[in-house]
Write a structure and sequence with these properties.
The chain is an alpha/beta fold. Helix content is about 60%, strand content about 5%.
Length: about 950
């Protein structure tokens, strides 16, 4: 290996916060989180990575992942390529070619290459100095669960290496106990739950004769163990304590004990800052408020970096809007809730006076968002979107309404879709839609970025990009918070960032060092906290969002009498702020982040695990808590609780039509399930894949799920898990059915292995077999037999009842008992409305055809309208086309002027995407035309149908015999 230079031209630092140093000077990193994470990943792995692997890690979602990767690589090249090319991007692979001395982790690995025991003392000292914190500290990419799993494992490995280096230094510094004490204390800071680390500190202090400090260390260890683990000190700790005896010799006079620094006085509480500067922005707010009050629609988009004052500007907007007699509904997205669908919308709608909205709209909202009130009849996503729009429209008619949504860069997929829909639908409504986000981080959320761009292109939009404050404005801001300070100095060091300026003002007022990063200043503030406030802060930081006081008390294990004084101190110190009735939030997201990062990795893990376990017993009938529990349990490495909660959270996301979030939750649950015992892993993995199948049905299925289910089936069979095997067959059948392979599904569902999986399992299996046979129009006698057998089983589960009614309706239609078929389909529709949009669309299509055959085109048109509203969101080409064709045929049969060209245009695409629907509609239209005396159009349509029979067996087999039985089409 080449000899390292004394001062490398480039150095990448990953042990602590990610840095790139050129000639010792830190370079600015790209603002995109994924780009920074990509840099850290390539640096740590130090080998070529497939482009497909990188796309899966960082861009597994909508959009063009490879284009995003190319964009990120283009941003990284100027950072790492200078005197030589380090970023090597080939056609199929990408690598960051760094010499060991150009990477701090590489330097540590080289120092202990032969093992920590074989490394020299100077090499160990240098390796310990290189560690500035956790590996890739602060590099977080919400939603990229594969990267999160990788970085968690790498951090654990780096932490073990660091601890082993510190242990070795403590052991070897026998001749210099002061140095040994430094390393021992560093070890405790890295892993405060390690009893051996505390014992090392106590033993070194005992040898130094510093009894009082040793006893303080013992008490600190005892309190940490009791509070965090509910445990008492081990025998090792007690033995170390026994070494602290007053009779031990004191250190020689030439080595006096260093004096302990005097305790700092409590930090004075700064006055709340006023809203200063931003003259142009103030004028824009006044203009917007006046426009909305005058009956106009307005859109406000506020962009800027963290701490620049976006939320403060929204606060000012809310105040001005309320003073103008308006209503404000405000919500905010949270980084920790990226997989909680509609989180910001729920918060905003809770703040709105929904009591004035009519009961039907309120029921629609509560049906899929139970947090807003008692649930009413369930509805599909289009009705939910429409209900939100109607509620906002109603509220805006009573008095001016401002809908304020903050931190849109963390919107989930469905929240972004709803925002886009609401903005388009409410353009003529006197309402203000105000959104704020971090411009740099919007690039990491393609959906939110797309919505932000759409908002920016609107005619009525006001776009405010907040920059730093001027020197005079910073001086005014700091003077209002802490009079008498040097505003010029604060401006120079804060570079005009209001939040950093306020923290520097606080530091100067309290006598602390005002230099350093914002997080360092915030950590300095946390050091002034005492008693219960200091204990509550980590729990609040781990919760990761606004929280109710009772929730905080539950996870912290405190009563109200203990919690309230602690929260009051946190509020007085500017850490927390009220956020609605009984709720609190951090004064800024950067404050929460600093509080969270001040915790060691083991402490974070323990906190998240305890939060998950505290939340899991709470009632959660709608699964609203499941996502939060899964998040905390995963970070707490409680695989059992995390996977169980992931099932509930994914199922809820599916019910809310948040299919991307559902798939992400499923994959995260599956990645955690590998840590479980085999039987438990197979069971929970099957449950997760069942949810994935349900989520895939609206997209025409997902063929990749089939081999994964089959693999679990084989494992269940090999281990003799009969119940899991039976469940697997049922899930596999559902996967085939979702993939439109009804014949294969019928074969699987008809096997005896599927029955008896759970209470009602036999009924569901037999009803689904009957439904598949009826859809295939094959072995109808067997389908009738299964229907009768299922009915004799007694009360049926809802799913079995849906399939039973649908199968009966199909058979009755084949027998020309159309009134009975109509009744069966309507009954099935009533049962299928519970979160099954694809099934509902299919049933509506069948009911519409029956209505046309009963010569009721107006009722068929109603079915087409219901389908048309839902089908575009299902993502299935054929199902999107069917309502348009149904509508055209219905209007033609109602006597409206629907020309032949229009009919051909809407019917033609069905020949490829929905042959069965094409055949039904052409036959029905032909019969209607013949009944009206239009023989030639009928002859042309039948000729066209005949030409398609060779390409679609289901057309010839499924529809001509049924229509021929009516004795009309074939006779003519």
């Amino acid at each position: 290996m080449a000899k390292p230079p004394a001062s490398p031209a480039l150095r990448v630092c990953v042990l602590g916060d990610l840095q790139v140093l050129r000639d010792g000077r830190a370079l600015g990193l790209p603002p995109s989180r994924r780009t920074r994470a990509l840099l850290g990943y390539l640096a740590v792995t130090r080998r070529s990575q497939l482009r497909s692997r990188l796309c899966d890690l960082f861009w597994d979602g909508p959009g063009d992942p490879r284009a995003s990767l190319r964009w990120s690589l283009a941003k990284l090249r100027p950072l790492v390529d200078s005197e030589r090319k380090r970023l090597v991007a080939a056609a199929d692979g990408v690598a960051l070619a760094l010499e060991p001395w150009e990477l701090d982790l590489g330097e540590v690995r080289a120092a202990v290459e032969g093992g920590v025991e074989a490394a020299g003392l100077e090499a160990l000292r240098r390796a310990a100095e290189v560690f500035r914190g956790e590996l890739l500290e602060g590099v977080e990419v919400p939603g990229c669960y594969r990267f999160e799993e990788w970085v968690a494992a790498e951090r654990a490995q780096a932490r073990r290496l660091r601890l082993s280096i510190l242990d070795a230094l403590v052991a070897r510094c026998e001749s210099d106990l002061e140095e040994a004490l430094v390393h021992a204390r560093a070890r405790v800071a890295v892993d405060p739950l390690s009893e051996s680390g505390h014992a090392s500190v106590i033993r070194v202090l005992a040898r130094l004769g510093r009894v009082r400090e040793g006893l303080e260390q013992y008490d600190a260890c005892r309190q940490i163990l009791a509070r965090a683990l509910g445990a008492r000190p081990s025998a090792e700790i007690e033995r170390a304590r026994l070494a602290l005896t007053p009779s031990r010799p004191s250190p020689p006079p030439c080595e006096p004990e260093p004096p302990k620094p005097a305790p700092r006085a409590p930090a004075p509480v700064l006055a709340g800052p006023t809203f200063v500067g931003r003259a142009q922005e103030r004028a824009a707010l006044d203009r917007i408020v006046a426009e909305v009050k005058g009956g106009r629609h307005a859109v406000l988009l506020v962009l800027g970096e963290p701490g620049v004052g976006k939320s403060r500007l929204l606060d000012e907007l809310a105040v001005r809007f309320l003073r103008a007699g308006g209503t404000v509904a405000r919500g905010r997205a949270y980084e920790a809730e990226a997989l909680r669908p509609y989180a910001a919308w729920i918060d905003a709608l809770r703040a709105a006076p929904l009591a004035t909205v009519n009961e039907t709209v309120r029921a629609e909202l509560a049906a899929l968002l139970p947090e807003l009130g008692p649930p009413g009849p369930s509805s599909e996503e289009n009705r939910l979107f429409e209900a939100v729009v109607q509620a906002l429209s109603t509220l805006s008619r009573e008095r001016p309404l401002a809908l304020i949504l903050d931190d849109v860069q963390w919107f989930d997929e469905r929240s972004a879709a709803l925002l886009h829909y609401a903005e388009r639908s409410l353009r003529g409504v006197p309402l203000l839609l105000a959104c704020a986000g971090r411009a740099a981080e919007l690039a990491d959320n393609p959906l939110a970025l797309k919505v932000a761009r759409a908002l920016s292109r609107g005619e009525l939009v006001t776009r405010l990009e907040l920059g730093p404050l001027s020197p005079d404005e910073i001086a005014e801001l700091t003077e209002s918070a802490a009079p008498g300070l040097d505003g010029a100095r604060i401006y120079e060091e804060s570079e005009g960032n209001p939040l950093l300026a306020l923290e520097m003002a606080r530091a100067l007022r309290t006598g602390s060092d005002p230099s350093g990063s914002l997080e360092a200043l915030l950590e300095e503030r946390f050091e002034h906290l005492q008693g219960r406030a200091r204990e509550v802060l980590p729990w609040a930081a781990a919760l990761g969002r606004s929280f109710r006081a009772d929730r905080l008390a539950r996870v912290a294990g405190m009563g109200a009498a203990e919690l309230l004084p602690a929260v009051e101190e946190l509020e007085r110190r500017g850490v927390l702020k009220p956020a609605g009735e009984g709720a609190y939030d951090f004064t800024h997201d950067l404050v929460r982040r600093a509080a969270y990062r001040s915790l060691s990795a083991p402490r974070r893990q323990l906190l998240h695990r305890e939060v998950a376990r505290a939340l899991s017993p709470l009632p959660d009938p709608d699964g609203a808590l499941a996502g939060e529990i899964a998040h905390h349990a995963a970070l707490g490495e409680d695989a059992e609780l995390a996977t169980q909660a992931a099932v509930g959270a994914a199922a809820r996301a599916t019910r809310l039509f948040a299919f991307a979030e559902a798939r992400s939750l499923v994959e995260r649950g599956l990645s955690l399930a590998v840590r479980l015992p085999p039987a438990q892993r197979i069971s929970v993995s099957l449950a997760l894949l069942r949810v994935a199948v349900d989520a895939s049905r609206t997209a025409g299925g997902d063929a990749s799920l089939v081999p994964r289910i089959e693999a679990l089936l084989e494992e269940a069979r090999a281990q003799g898990l009969s119940a899991e095997e039976a469940a697997g067959y049922g899930i596999l059948a559902h996967a085939h059915f979702a993939n439109r392979d009804a014949e294969h599904a019928a074969e699987l569902l008809g096997s005896e292995a599927v029955r008896g999986v759970e209470p009602g399992g036999a009924a569901v299996a037999m009803a689904e077999v009957a439904g598949c046979l009826a859809i295939l129009e094959r072995d109808i006698p067997r389908a009738r037999m299964l229907i009768e057998e299922t009915r004799r089983l007694g009360p049926l589960p809802p799913r079995a009842a849906v399939y039973l009614s649908a199968a009966t309706g199909i058979i009755r239609a084949l027998e020309d008992d159309l009134p009975s078929a109509e009744e069966c389909f309507e009954r099935a529709l009533g049962l299928a409305a519970e979160g099954a949009p694809w099934e509902e669309c299919v049933l509506l299509a069948r009911l519409a055809v029956v209505e046309l055959m009963l010569e009721r085109p107006s009722r068929a048109l109603e079915c087409a309208a219901r389908m048309d509203a839902a089908a575009p969101r299902l993502g299935v080409t054929g199902e999107v086309l069917v309502p348009r064709a149904l509508g055209a045929v219905s209007r033609r049969l109602m006597g409206e002027n629907v020309g032949d060209e229009t009919l051909l245009r809407v019917l033609g695409p069905l020949e490829l995407d929905a042959k069965a629907r094409f055949a039904e509609l052409v036959c029905v239209l032909a019969e209607g035309e013949l009944a009206s005396g239009h023989v030639e159009p009928s002859r042309a349509l039948l000729a066209r149908l005949a030409r398609r029979r060779a390409g679609g067996a289901i057309v010839a087999r499924g529809h001509e015999p049924r229509l021929a039985g009516q004795g009309r089409v074939r006779a003519r």
